[in-house]
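Side project, low priority. Logging it here so it doesn't get lost.
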Amino acid sequence: MSNMFHQIGDTLEKSMYFKSCFYILTGALLIYIGYIVGKWVGSVVF
């Protein structure tokens, strides 16, 4: 029984780790795209 709880805990820990990695990567990608679009818009407008 305790082994089952341990497995659930490990799975939750892994999924939390993957989720945080996913959010960090997504955030970095959005910032990168925003930077490129901002540069492009800036070069067009100014």
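Brief comment: Residues 1-46 form one domain.
Revisit when time allows.
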